[in-house]
Specification:
The structure is a homodimer. Chain A has a single domain (17-330), classed as Farnesyl Diphosphate Synthase. Helix content of chain A is 75%, strand content 1%. Chain A is built from 16 helices and two strands. Chain A binds chain B through residues 40-45, 96, 99-100, 118-120, 122-124, 126-127, 129-131, 133-134, 136-138, 140, 142, 145-146, 149-150, 152-157, 159-161, 163-164, and chain B through 40-45, 96, 99-100, 118-120, 122-124, 126-127, 129-131, 133-134, 136-138, 140, 142, 145-146, 149-150, 152-157, 159-161, 163-164. Chains A, B: Belongs to the FPP/GGPP synthase family.
Chain lengths: 337, 337
């Protein structure tokens, strides 16, 4: 089964390479700025920041900001600062998330909190958030500030909601998607929307990029949820089953629970609500997901959001940046293969 | 010994009443806005926010914003939003501080973290910070945004510094004052400075209010440090000795340590670095502070900062707001009596 998006009207393929290529020169400046703004006389701050940077992911969010600005013909400097702000917001969220989730590993590496403690993670997260706002203010676009500050509040609200809903098997698919919308999609949406904003594009262009980012974020998170039950630890650099062991109720769990009989429902409640989540339970969880097609159903939903993202960016003028934004949608979904 | 500031050229007395009076009508709107912006469909958020509001302190920081705007002839609405932002920044800091310090009580009431847990405190703090930035952005003053976002980064940087320096008796007075400057004085300074900024006042007026706020913040914190060893639990609504039991190295500790003999120095290291901080140790700590005049010396420094604050606001045109800003300086220092 191919999971590539069956849109086909534009010649793109599932790859992050075009995005790396178009954003490369500006991302070099983003990375410099990140290092500079993570600098401090307080040793602990650059120490933790460098740990985060070196264990770093793909920097997908700041690349979206760069590419979406370029796709709208932007030629100034502000996209670099905004991209660095977006990455700092993301990093601050990760630091606080790891404290809240009591995570010991992220992408197969020790989390900051296991090395430096919860206290440092909370405070360095706050520092990075403060630096993010400083950079945004320097850009001087009130519209961009509005978008990013709103995202910041929405992300935190989603996290609190997840905390209160966590470990309750009564969480519905709609409930869960509302959390994903807030926790993950809001920052993707903001990262993409500030591009046309600083390029001086119109309301329709802003809306299109916002929809693109949001849909991509939703697809991205659902694929992540599947990978946590299906990817191999070596490939992903992330221990399969992390979500399960942390009692995180994600879409595959919800769908398997809803399709299960009474005995299976009891298993899920024991596992997610009462922490019976050892290796044996994980194996059973995976087996139930496969039996009820919960992973495939999650992928189907991810693909549908991916198609929405693809459609939202398809009307952009044909440029390498446009094609990069399209290819990365397919890439994000194809990760699951 | 009177601790009132011996300036005398203006007829003010140590009181918070004039500040409460001049800021009263606007503070009613600030409080409404705080409740509205702490609202959320996520139940936990208003629950925690109401706890913080009901256990609330004097709202000194937002009152400074209101009074300093009025003292510069401001007649618009922006000071209300900025004052609410300042209070949210402060509240978010308190929530995170309690997690970092593992505090169980604040002003004699259970802290949010003891009721709702560290996780909720971290995330609700993030939410309030996000809402603070949203309100600032709505005001639309880039200068005010710059001041407040810089303060946000400085506060967090100071907290991290304190974390790395915490429990080291080698902390010098200068080290400690740098932390107070960042942790406490930066927000007082920002709260006061945004007043003239939105009133369209000049650079000299901004600088004067910044100095006023900073000096008041320094004085305020030093008096707090003294109260923690000298105030009575009933009067202050705060358990005397909290700082000591949390191993917080404040100025009275530093001064007593520096003046102590080898045996006393060993006592302080045991207490602050190794957690021998029971009731008996606290009694000895107080006794050593009195023997070496550490509390009086701290008050002397607080008074000197108070005089600087008083001087910075003295040149304002004579209005009830100006007098309120002056009276509250004396009030902050007189708390120690």
């Amino acid at each position: 089964m191919s999971l590539a998006i069956p849109v086909g009207r534009i010649d793109t393929r599932a790859s992050i390479e075009p995005l790396l290529a178009v954003s490369g020169p500006d991302m070099a400046r983003v990375n410099e700025l990140i290092l500079a703004m993570a600098g401090s006389n307080v040793e602990l701050i650059p120490e933790i920041a460098e740990h985060l940077i070196s264990s770093g992911g793909k920097r997908l969010r700041p690349m979206l900001t760069i590419a979406s600005a370029l796709a709208h013909g932007y030629t100034g400097d502000a996209h670099v600062k905004l991209a660095a702000s977006v990455e700092f917001m993301h990093t601050a969220t990760l630091l606080h998330d790891d404290v809240v989730d009591e995570s010991d590993l992220r992408r197969g590496k020790k989390t900051a909190r296991t090395i430096w403690g919860n206290q440092a993670s909370v405070l360095v997260g706050d520092f990075l958030l403060g630096q993010a706002f400083k950079m945004m203010v320097e850009v001087g676009s009130l519209a961009a500030l509005h978008i990013l500050s709103s995202a910041s509040a929405v992300i935190a609200e989603g996290e609190v909601w997840q905390l209160s809903a966590a470990k309750r098997m009564t969480t519905s698919e709609a409930d869960y998607m509302a959390v994903v919308d807030a926790k993950t999609a809001a920052l993707f949406a903001a990262a993409a929307e500030v591009g046309p904003v600083i390029a001086g594009a119109g309301e329709a262009e802003r809306l299109a990029m916002r929809n693109y980012g949001r849909s991509l974020g939703l697809a991205f998170q659902l694929v992540d949820d599947v990978l946590d039950y299906g990817g191999s630890s070596a490939d992903l650099g992330k221990n399969t089953g992390d979500d399960f062991r942390e009692g995180k109720i994600t879409l595959p769990v919800i769908l398997a629970y809803q399709a299960g009989n009474e005995e299976e429902k009891a298993f899920w409640r024991e596992a997610m609500e009462h922490g019976r989540n050892g290796d044996e339970a994980l194996a059973r969880a995976k087996s139930l997901m496969h039996r009820h097609g919960a992973l495939d159903a999650t992928i189907t939903r991810a693909r549908s959001h991916g198609e929405a993202a693809y459609a939202a960016a398809s009307n952009l003028p044909r440029t390498p940046s446009r094609d990069a934004l399209l290819s990365v949608v397919e890439f994000c979904i194809d990760r699951v293969n």
